[in-house]
């Protein structure tokens, strides 16, 4: 089994068997070009000047149209910072982010965002939470509700249209949040630890459902998690972020047959090997380990 590793985007690890569904030949959907993000840090007591924190440094990555990319890294490695940049909620300090070749300039309905906290409107039903965004951008109410119902069905909540958020479980609320993003039929779905607050069983079920939705819609997905298992289960490629400052350490390709999300993929030797590989990458501590990684990179396919 090959375990070569590269530092960035295009050429990636080839673990396990090839899959029929390859996005490598598809056009680049998202291009991150030496993206750096710094934040000012307020001065400590007794000091006049604050410092600067580098949350992300020189992140270069290409994500292909229709790809499912998982981004894994420890807390504070800049995952949410990266997602905010992709969503257009913030602009990078330096570097460029291109979507379909165009620089990101603010938010847009071409990108749906799902956060860990569902942020549903408590006074609206599940259906109206999904339809709300459409009506507020001018869509006729009936049409909006019809489309909302389609996506409520897609996330498996057909019978729950009239329930209010407090009447829904955590998993159901997150399904509504996903449907709310999908109702715009975005090209890209950005997800920041969306299943982090769910119990293990619900989480697994939603992971499988998300794979089904991804296969059904063909949406490009960038999925952030700090769970190695979740990243390897979902991601065709897993981008591994290092901390302080957040740097893209490597991208691992995980070729698993995900055509049947109900299959026990986690028992597949290829899954186990990939998970272990990412685990090693994340647990190789300190700069020495990072150097070792880039040594391995040299002489690889790129
Ligand atoms: P992650 O999502 O991987 O846990 P974040 O992207 O939230 O990490 O944060 C990366 C680093 O940047 C952290 O050290 C965090 O404290 C810092 N940070 C994030 N957003 C801001 C901000 N708006 N102002 C100052 N520091 C920030
Ligand atoms: Mg975060």
Walk me through this protein's architecture.
Residues 1-21 and 287-302 have low confidence and may be disordered. The two termini are 18 Å apart. The strands form 2 sheets. The protein has a 6-stranded mixed β-sheet with strand order 6-7-8-3-9-10, with helices on both faces. Strands 2-1-4-5 form a 4-stranded antiparallel β-sheet, covered by helices on one side. Strand 9 and strand 10 (247-253) form a beta hairpin. Helix 2 (126-136) runs parallel beside helix 4 (170-182) and helix 3 (141-154) crosses helix 4 (170-182). It is built from 8 helices and 10 strands. It has a domain at 7-42 and 51-110 and 192-197 and 225-245 and 252-296: 3-Layer(aba) Sandwich (Rossmann fold), CATH 3.40.50. The protein has helices at 79-87, 126-136, 141-154, 170-182, 200-217, 228-234, 269-283, 286-297; strands at residues 28-41, 51-64, 68-72, 94-99, 102-103, 111-114, 188-192, 220-225, 237-242, 247-253. The protein is α/β, with parallel strands linked by helices and 302 residues long.
């Amino acid at each position: 089994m090959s375990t070569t590793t590269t530092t960035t985007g295009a050429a990636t690890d080839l673990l396990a068997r090839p899959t029929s569904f390859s996005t490598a030949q598809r056009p680049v959907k998202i291009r991150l070009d030496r993206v750096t993000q710094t934040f000012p840090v307020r001065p400590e007591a007794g000091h006049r000047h604050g410092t600067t924190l580098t949350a992300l440094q020189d992140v270069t990555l290409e994500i292909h149209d229709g790809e499912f990319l998982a981004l894994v890294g420890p807390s504070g490695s800049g995952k949410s910072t990266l997602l905010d940049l992709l969503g257009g909620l913030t602009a990078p300090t330096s570097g460029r982010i291109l979507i379909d070749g165009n620089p990101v300039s603010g938010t847009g309905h071409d990108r749906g965002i799902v956060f860990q906290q569902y942020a549903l409107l408590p006074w609206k039903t599940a259906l109206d939470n999904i339809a709300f965004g459409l009506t507020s951008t001018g869509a006729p109410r009936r049409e909006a509700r019809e489309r909302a119902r389609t996506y409520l069905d897609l996330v498996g909540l057909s019978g729950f249209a009239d329930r209010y958020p407090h009447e829904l479980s955590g998993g159901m609320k997150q399904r509504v949040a996903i449907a709310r993003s999908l109702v715009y039929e975005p090209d890209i779905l950005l997800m920041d630890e969306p299943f982090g607050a769910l119990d293990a069983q619900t989480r697994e079920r939603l992971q499988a459902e998300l794979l089904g939705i991804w296969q059904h819609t063909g949406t490009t997905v960038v999925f952030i998690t700090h769970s190695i298992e979740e990243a390897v289960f979902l991601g065709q490629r897993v981008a591994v972020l290092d901390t302080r400052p957040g740097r893209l350490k490597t991208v691992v390709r995980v070729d698993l047959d995900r055509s049947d999300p109900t299959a026990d993929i986690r028992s597949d030797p290829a899954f186990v090997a990939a998970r272990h590989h990412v685990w090693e990458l994340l647990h190789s501590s300190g700069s020495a380990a990072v150097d070792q990684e880039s040594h391995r990179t040299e002489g690889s396919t790129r």
